[in-house]
Amino acid sequence: MASSTEENYLKSLFNLANEQGEVSISDLAQNLHVSMPTANSMVKNLQKQGWVGYEKYKPVILTQEGKKAAALVIRKHRLTEMFLVKKMGFGWEEVHEVAEQIEHIHAPKFFERMDEMLGFPTIDPHGSPIPDAQGRIQEFSYLPLSSCKVGQEVQLTALTNSSTEFLEFLNGRALRLGLNLKIHSREAYDQSMVVSYDDHPSETLSEKVCERLLVRVIGK
Amino acid sequence: MASSTEENYLKSLFNLANEQGEVSISDLAQNLHVSMPTANSMVKNLQKQGWVGYEKYKPVILTQEGKKAAALVIRKHRLTEMFLVKKMGFGWEEVHEVAEQIEHIHAPKFFERMDEMLGFPTIDPHGSPIPDAQGRIQEFSYLPLSSCKVGQEVQLTALTNSSTEFLEFLNGRALRLGLNLKIHSREAYDQSMVVSYDDHPSETLSEKVCERLLVRVIGK
DNA sequence: TTAGATACTTAGATTAATCTAACAAATTTG
DNA sequence: CAAATTTGTTAGATTAATCTAAGTATCTAA
């Protein structure tokens, strides 16, 4: 069974591979805030346990077992986030730190009961998919708001970044998942967009923000 | 801040002191399933951090800070047990292992929300008191059933042992906290007692069991 | 195409938590 | 009370996870 530390490495490898494709030792080290030699020796350890394939100076690749193990940790993390928000009254900006700890709890029934109580959710509070109990993960094909056109109506469905600062920024503008946005204009100079929703008749969102908002087109 | 390991030592010291008074290095080592040298060096470490007082060959004594730190870990443990039983549908025999892990989570709001959702409970599912947020613990004065007299009516209020095996034994006889028991007889030879409750007109309980059942006298 | 920069590895040290072996103090008991 | 037993301590080793320093491989770009 993986230690908490090993679980964190598996999770990082999984997430980095999804974001970037190939994952180098330095990517991994940076992501986990450890030195390269530390990441290097842990990768060798993970390899010995059959979770990753690795050859000197080559990218690190999760094996099938490694992917499954990683997905199951991510499952625990995202189920926990959903539970904290839906059942315990946490804000979506407060759940990450707690979930980072609870994801390492070994207690199948605990997470099964969360899953049941939540009605078997498929996404977490930030719109990321929750892997199933077999470690299978459903991929959605959402677009960044930044790639949408003026005049379109879209629904905010997920985020590519769930840092506390970004979530607090969204809270400040009453932006939440499920909201319908109308795209009124885009500024050619800096790619910022003006949108409206609910009782917000005109909000300007920077390119940086628009890239992090994932949407589904619903109109025009 | 105490590591999980340190928290476990503090908890053991607190519980052992309550059960036995003086706590030796060997008591501690036995209780935590570690060797005496391990317990010895951890006690020195806890002393350096101001949680225990210790002199060579003398009993280990928690300081005020040590007692408070221990009580706050026990608070997290017992709140978690109550949450698992009352909010997540666990049986009282299933909660210990999970609570042993969750008690080490550092997330004040998580436990505050549990407390609120449970209506600020004062006892856990096994009748043990839950320390308050300041680490103060309310002591009850319950009697073991074994010390009660034939003819008395008593209410089952707590247990002195909450091992899975004992709890499953109680489950098998539908014995649970809050139940009123009538004491019909006691066998002089082995101190076993015959009691009745609910639709159980006659159950024989061994001395070992009677010592572990804590009650409040309500009649005769 | 080779010099310089970047990425990676090796070597060796550190810390927390554990162990066993050996010795020392304290307690119990004949 | 002295011997035997129990309890506690010291010394030294181990493992997981981390680090820094130093050296090596790979990539990039003049």
Automatic annotation (TrEMBL), chains A, B:
Range of residues in the leader sequence: none
Keyword Cytoplasm: no
UniProt cross-references to InterPro entries, sorted A to Z: DtxR_MntR_Metal-Reg, Fe_dep_repressor, Fe_dep_repressor_sf, FeoA_core_dom, HTH_DTXR, HTH_RpiR, Iron_dep_repressor, WH-like_DNA-bd_sf
Keywords: DNA-binding, Transcription, Transcription regulation
Location of the HTH rpiR-type domain: 1-68
Superkingdom of the source species: Bacteria
Positions of the HTH dtxR-type domain: 1-63
Transmembrane segments: none
Any Pfam family matching the protein: Fe_dep_repr_C
Family: Belongs to the DtxR/MntR family.
Function description: In the presence of manganese, represses expression of mntH and mntS. Up-regulates expression of mntP.
Name of the featured protein: Transcriptional regulator MntR
Species the sequence originates in: Algoriphagus confluentis
Lineage: Bacteria, Pseudomonadati, Bacteroidota, Cytophagia, Cytophagales
